[in-house]
Amino acid sequence: MAVKTQKKATSIDMTAMCDVAFLLLTFFILTATAKIPEALPVDTPQSTVQTKLPETDLATLTIGKGKVFFDLKGREVRKRTLELMGQKYGVEFTEDEKSKFSLMEGIGVPVGNLKQLIAMKTAERSKAGQPGVPKDSLDNQLAEWVQNARIANIELNDKELQIAIKGDAKEEYPSIRKVMDILQDQKINSFSLVTGLRGKNF
C-alpha cells in the first residue's frame, strides 16, 4: 500500500530580494544626474534620418524666436574658448567662472553680460530671458564664438570642430540663412541640421 505524503505550502522569503531592489534603486538615484533644461527650447522639424551627432568636437547653434544660442561639447574646450573670447573683448574671467562656464548649457548673451549669467544658478539662467548671441554685421559675436571654438578644439583635441544647426520648425528662413552665411564666411560648408525623428510611412 502506497503512502501519500502530505504536500506543504511552500513559501519564499522575499527579504533578500527587497533588499537588493532597494539597494539598486538607491544606487541609481545617487549616481543619476538631473537633466539640465535647454536654454532655448525649440520644436525641430521632423525627418526620417537617424544619424546621431558626435559626443565630442561639436558646437551647436540653436535658432528660435529670432535668437541664436551657442553651445559646445567638452569642458576644457569650453574653458579655452571662454579665455579666447575674454581676450578678444577685454573681459577677464576667473578660474571659478571658467569652471562654472564649462558646466553650463548653451549661452545666449553678449560677452559683456556673460559674467552675470555665469553667476546665476541653473534654474535662474533658464528664466533669465537671454536675448541671444549678437550676430549683426556691427557686432558679430556669433562668428567670434565659432572661430574661437574652432581654435580651442584644434589646440586641445587636434581635430576640426563640427557644427550642428538646431532650428525651430517655425523659424523664418532668413534667420537660418544668416547663421549659414556666418559659417560660410569662415569656409564652413559642411554642417549638420538637427531634426526630430518621424515615423516612416509604408
Briefly note the structural class of the backbone: alpha/beta
Total number of beta strands: 6
Mean pLDDT: 84
Spatial ordering of strands, largest sheet:
3-2-4-5
Oligomer: single chain
Categorize the overall geometry.
elongated
> Low-confidence runs (pLDDT<50, min 5 residues)?
none
Biggest β-sheet strands, sense, barrel:
4 strands, mixed
Strand content: 5-15%
Could you state the order of secondary-structure elements as H and E? HEEEHHHHHEHEE
Task: Tally the helices.
Answer: 7
Over the alpha carbons, how many angstroms does the gyration radius reach? 25 Å
For the record, give the distance between the C-alpha atoms at the N and C termini, rounded to a whole number. Answer: 70 Å
Q: Name the helicity range.
A: 40-55%
Name the descriptors.
6 strands, four-stranded mixed beta sheet, alpha/beta, single chain, two-stranded parallel ribbon, 202 residues
Task: Summarize the structure in words.
The protein is of the alpha/beta class. 41% of the residues lie in helices and 12% in strands. It is built from seven helices and six strands, in the order H-E-E-E-H-H-H-H-H-E-H-E-E. It has helices at residues 15-31, 75-89, 95-103, 114-119, 122-126, 141-157, 173-185; strands spanning 46-47, 58-64, 67-72, 162-167, 192-193, 196-197. The strands form two sheets. The protein has a four-stranded mixed β-sheet. The protein has a two-stranded parallel sheet with strand order 1-6. Helix 7 (173-185) links the parallel strand 4 (162-167) and strand 5. Helix 2 (75-89) crosses helix 3 (95-103) and helix 2 crosses helix 6 (141-157). The longest helix has 17 residues, at 15-31. The radius of gyration is 25 Å and the shape is elongated. The protein starts with 14 loop residues before the first helix and ends in a 5-residue tail after the last strand. The model has no long low-confidence stretch (mean pLDDT 84).
